[in-house]
Amino acid sequence: MNPESELSRIGISLPKNLLDTFDAIIGARGYSSRSEGIRDAIRSYITYYKWMSDVKGERQGVITMVYDHDQRGLLQTITDIQHEYIHTIQASMHAHLSHDQCMEVILLRGDGAALKTIAERLMSQKGVASVKLTTIPIEKED
């Protein structure tokens, strides 16, 4: 039996603006239902998680993060995390997207596990809307 043929019913709570945006996307992409869109989003999340789990060895990377700068304590936490990894983080750039939203781009170099840890720590903070880590292996010079 196909594992996807056994369905489980779940209930989730979402902010209205998030659900409205999701509904607009699934409509534009031609999904037949929210459930189909949610299944596809979960598959994508699982694929990304597996890809992130394979980040090993010496890497060069970039973290792109969008967050709410009004979230209490978030700016200090982001700064503290960056200072904790001062030998891995090479540079960062901050941009204002709107009155409430900011983007931070962080350049990193180091062990893949450390890069992944930094991204996951940032991702877990309340007020962080998105975090994307992209890495490439560092080629050894002969």
TrEMBL record:
Ni(2+) binds at H83, H94, H96, C102. Its cofactor is Ni(2+). GO terms for molecular function: DNA binding; DNA-binding transcription factor activity; nickel cation binding. The keyword Transport does not apply. Residues 9-48 form the Ribbon-helix-helix protein CopG domain. Binds 1 nickel ion per subunit. SUPFAM superfamilies: ACT-like, Ribbon-helix-helix. Keywords: DNA-binding, Metal-binding, Nickel, Transcription, Transcription regulation. Residues 61-136 form the Transcription factor NikR nickel binding C-terminal domain. It comes from the Archaea. One of its GO terms (biological process) is response to nickel cation. Transcriptional regulator. Belongs to the transcriptional regulatory CopG/NikR family. HAMAP family: NikR. This is Putative nickel-responsive regulator. The gene is nikR.
